[in-house]
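Many introductory courses stop at the sequence. We go one step further.
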Amino acid sequence: PDYTHFDVDIRNRDGLLRLVADINPQVIVHTAAQPSHDRAAAIPFDDFDTNAVGTLNMLEAARRACPEAPFVHMSTNKVYGDLPNTIPLRELPTRWDYADPRYSEGIPESFSIDQSKHSIFGASKVAADVMVQEYGRYFGMPTCCLRGGCLTGPNHSGVELHGFLSYLVRCNIEEREYKVFGYKGKQVRDNIHSDDVANLILAFCDSPKCGEVYNLGGGKENSCSILEAFATVEELTGKPQKFVYLDENRIGDHICYYSDLSKIHQHFPNWRIRRPLRAVFEEIVESWHARLPGKPVAVESR
């Protein structure tokens, strides 16, 4: 009842400037993006105009109309490019993991974003990320970049090009073949529930800082490989996971990535991950059963 929709493209600079001036918002949470890592190479102008220029439009609209309003930008861990792949790894039975003890808790915000292959999508998000920081530091605006891992939840409509966990679960339920791109299926991602993301955004808005960056994912505890995700969803649905293995990795893709959440915990000590990985899986499975045609199947919880 308190939601009002305005149909304005963030690439429409004049329209966006007018809209933000008219609304004069107390908080801006910028989630608009071209989200596909793979598709970006086919649409580089659209990708950059949306992710980079669109973010600049949002920032300038905020600076002119409401410079004191907290500005939260949903960035991505792709700003680090493929540099995380230079960290020595150890191969375990079902996953890759960091062999360097400096990264035992994951990738920190101090990790370099420079001189690496980002993908076209990652490069446009770097431009946006740096501009959000700059508006915070140069103009003193309360801005932050949340460099997301795998953000998910029960209503996530994942597809092959993005939305790993949601799409994997849907493939299992519909008995469709899931494509595994390289790394033996042992590539690792950290998964965070949308409620935990929203709670961090609220924490920042209550105690904003200027030009900050935070790595936001599920952390080590909520990380899993594709093989481990297969095992969990098979246990929950009782269906074997159909998949095909392609011995080629996606360009600029991470072998292992999970977020070091130490900085978030230092800045926002009352925030923590409230949805463990198992619960995230259960909610996604239940949601797809409810949304897809056919008889719902009970989810085994333990």
